Predict the 3D structure of the following.
Amino acid sequence: MTRALESKGAVSMIGGLLLALVALPATAQIPDEFTNLKVLPKDIGKRELVSIMREYSKALGQRCKFCHVGESPDSLEGYDFASDEPEHKRVTREMMKMVAEINGKLLPAAGKDDARVRCVTCHRGVDEPETLDHLLLEIVESKGVDEAAARYRSLRDEYYGTGSYDFSANTLNEVAETLAQERGDVDGAIAITRLNVEFNPDAARSHLMLGQLYAQKGDKAAAIASLERVLQLDPGNRWAERLLKQVRETE
Ligand code: HEC
Ligand code: HEC
């Protein structure tokens, strides 16, 4: 049993190493001379340039192909790195200037001479940096709550534990609160909070919110069930006790 597990571990470790080897661009396929640098110093050494390019790739959770013309994602053979055709390369030059401006001028003006913003400070492993609550609210607005819930599930599958998004119960609580209070969308808020307690079944605050929302909708049985759950998780919770009393008294 232990043996089988050990050898399985060894196999997947070797698999991981192989993957890492394939994923690392063979620097031999990268030219030694650069012909189209407009932001970086023209005489930059190859090692430094490649290290910057890897930093960009990692910060955005992308490969070289995201910004450069080339066929294969796994080998850099035949890549035309000097080409300015990719839109992402153009955007990146502006991002580089923005970062230089922040680090060179704006942070020192704020008295933060040693502080540095890097690509990953905003991007955190994704090409379109956005907090999860804002992202979901946007999707609720443009495509509806079912789409937002589906996106939450797929983002969670892909990014849980990476630090790109905050999957704690707070995020969906925020979304539900905004929907209920600012947009008057109680049904949307209920759908989001149900999703929240599905993934965070022990979050008393989310069950409390669900209880409040059901009470607001007049669904007495569901409100009572949620509020009782709050009291199991957080015995003596004042809000839950008070609301439970109110709900039970209504006819
Ligand atoms: C997020 C976008 C982005 C990613 C990802 C990226 N690059 Fe770049 N790359 C650029 C930009 C922008 C320039 C041009 C910089 C300038 O104008 O100073 C550049 C320039 C280069 C150049 C110099 C081309 C020339 O001759 O002028 C090479 C070589 C290069 N990148 C290799 C790579 C490799 C290898 C990877 C993957 C490890 C990679 N890049 C990933 C944006 C990117
Ligand atoms: C101050 C925050 C911030 C920093 C620092 C930053 N970016 Fe961005 N970046 C953004 C935002 C915001 C967007 C727009 C995302 C969107 O379209 O929703 C963006 C978009 C991009 C895009 C276009 C992505 C796409 O899918 O269209 C690229 C490429 C990019 N950034 C590269 C970089 C690189 C490389 C660096 C470091 C040199 C960097 N960014 C630093 C905030 C930042």
Residues 1-8 have pLDDT under 50 and may be disordered. Residues 25, 30-31, 34-40, 50, 53-54, 56-57, 60, 62, 64, 66-68, 76, 81-82, 88-89, 92-93 surround heme C (ligand 1) (CB under 6 Å).
